[in-house]
Amino acid sequence: MDTNTLIAIVAVAVVLVVAIVAGYFWNRSRKSQDAARPSAATTAAAPSKPQPKSQSAAQPKPAAAKPGEPAKSAKPAESSEPAKPAKPAAPTKSTEPAVQQPAEPKPAPKPEAPESVGSRLTRLKAKLAKSANPFGKALFSILTKDNLSESDWEDVEDTLLMADVGAEASEQLVDELRADARVTGEKDPAAVREMLRGKLLDLVGRDTDRRLNVSKPGANKPSVIMMVGVNGTGKTTTAGKLARLFVADGKSVVLGAADTFRAAAADQLETWGARVNVPVVRSDKDGADPASVAFDAASRAKESDADVLIIDTAGRLQNKANLMDELGKIRRVTEKNLPVDEVLLVLDATTGQNGMAQAKVFAEAIGITGIVLSKLDGSARGGIVIAVQKELGVPVKLVGLGEGPDDLAPFDPEGFVDGILA
After folding, report:
1. pLDDT at residue 174 above 80?
2. Mean pLDDT computed over 24-46
3. Are residues 339 and 264 part of one domain?
4. Do 262 and 327 sit in the same domain of this protein?
5. pTM of the model
6. Membrane-spanning residues where (predicted)?
7. Binding-site residues, please?
8. Confidence class of residue 180 from pLDDT cuts 50, 70 and 90?
9. What is the DSSP letter of 409?
């Protein structure tokens, strides 16, 4: 065998080997493309989403080029279905925290303007005249009879007793009326009414000094007023109304919430104070020492040079000696800072003679300088005004005739008598 033949055999063998290798790689490329077609079809059917760049590595690689042929670039797999247009991507929310604008402070409520004292007296007199008080009317109807019998005089005394005038004051008034010849001889109702009016004014006390000590010449500044009384008489409410009365008179006031036993008492007093821009000194916790609160309130009133300090105390049952002793302690501790000028006992006018028992015990325990009669409107027991003054020798200085914030006024004897005789 010559050399040319051997070269030809080797050349054919090389060509066969190259063809086999090329066929092997070509088959692998076809299988890869066939496997990619179902995935592409599924992707085209689903909504198009932005794909991350890293998925480009999953694209099929181009087939190896045959020897002597230029390499062909790999074509992306074509889907058998047309791809749906991709939805626009939703805008991404900023991860930075929103800058909150500072809330604008709410304007403080405008303080109320309390009603003047003169206007209160006029309005309260009209209220008393309209109230269901049969006291004066019953007396007037009896005394205007033609001839007064012994039975009629007994009716007069019974009427006075039912009105809580008191036994002693009732007997005194009946004796004076029987001794007055005008009662038995006068037939004019207007004259009888005027006579009865004069007798009642004498009993109530037409010339009694009913001014609060803060209104008297030479009063201390600050002038300290203690409010005392049993539960349910409207003591805390009266303290708030009294602050309004002083504000209407142009005085500066400080309130002391020394009722530390009733949870809502300090809050109630703060509400009253806020309405007329009056500061309230209170404890941060319930059950604190009331004498300590009163002392702090006195210090505050002295520092601010207030005209009046009103100290509200807890309602005491008059048969609890230890609680009554505590009132004395509050007064003693307060007077280490400021003298106590006034002790006002708040009485419920509807309690009648029961209020007399309360007044006696308070007078003995702490000493009172004046009476505040609350809830006098609509009461048939207006005679308590006469009874409490005669028993204690202490004047009624203030009266309450309603639930309004300005339904508290200085006691006016003439207005009271005119009201019950109207």
Report:
1. yes
2. 60
3. yes
4. yes
5. 0.69
6. 6-27
7. 229-236, 312-316, 374-377
8. confident
9. E
